[in-house]
Amino acid sequence: MEEQLLMQEEQKDESVFLCNAKKNAMFFNVETMRLTNPKDFKKCFQAGKRTKNKVFSLYYIENGGLPGRLGVNVAKSKINKAVDRNKIKRVAREIFRKGGFDGLDIVLLLKNEKNYDETECFMLVHDVFSNIIKK
């Protein structure tokens, strides 16, 4: 009798686990979409292709069919306010997520902070990402 109760509890736990796994599979996994290793950044800079606009440079390289990954580098010395740096990162991640850049490692760099205008942030980032789609 006790064995049956234990088995029923284990089955309930397993079914809850499977249900949660299915729910999580539907959502976008943030951790797998980020470039975190400095070696990956270096590989993008050295062997990758580059596209740029008046504010941003974007380096990209194929990653062998893996899901796309994004790295964003906005220096504190160029944009002083954390709010503005984080806005650039949020916009870049959103465009990357919606753009479907599977199979690419992408690094976005802020190069010319003098031409950066926070009201045009979305358009500037979207413009540099659209250059990849054209190529």
Q: What would you say this structure looks like, in words?
A:
With 135 residues, this protein is α+β, with helices and mostly antiparallel strands. It has one domain (31-134): Ribosomal Protein S5, domain 2, CATH 3.30.230.10. It is 50% helix and 17% strand. It has 4 helices and 4 strands. A 4-stranded mixed β-sheet has the order 1-2-4-3, sandwiched between helices. α3 (82-99) packs parallel to α4. It starts with a helix and ends with a helix. Mean pLDDT is 82; it is low at 15-26.
What distinguishing features does this structure have?
elongated; Ribosomal Protein S5, domain 2; four-stranded mixed β-sheet; 50% helix; 4 helices; 135 residues; alpha+beta
Q: What name does the CATH topology carry?
A: Ribosomal Protein S5, domain 2
The main β sheet shows up as:
4 strands, mixed
Structural class: alpha+beta
Question: Could you estimate the helical fraction of the residues in percent?
Answer: 40-55%
**What is the average per-residue confidence, as pLDDT, rounded to a whole number?**
82
Taken from the alpha-carbon principal axes, the silhouette is elongated
Q: Under the CATH scheme, which class?
A: Alpha Beta
One letter per element, helices H and strands E, the order comes to: HHEEEHEH
The tally of structural domains comes to 1
SS field, number of helical segments: 4
Strand arrangement, largest sheet?
A: 1-2-4-3
Compute the gyration radius: what is it? 21 Å
What CATH architecture do you see?
Answer: 2-Layer Sandwich
Which parts are unreliable, with pLDDT below 50 for 5 consecutive residues or more?
Answer: 15-26
Count of β-strands? 4
Q: How big a fraction of the residues is strand? A: 15-25%
- N- to C-terminal distance: 67 Å
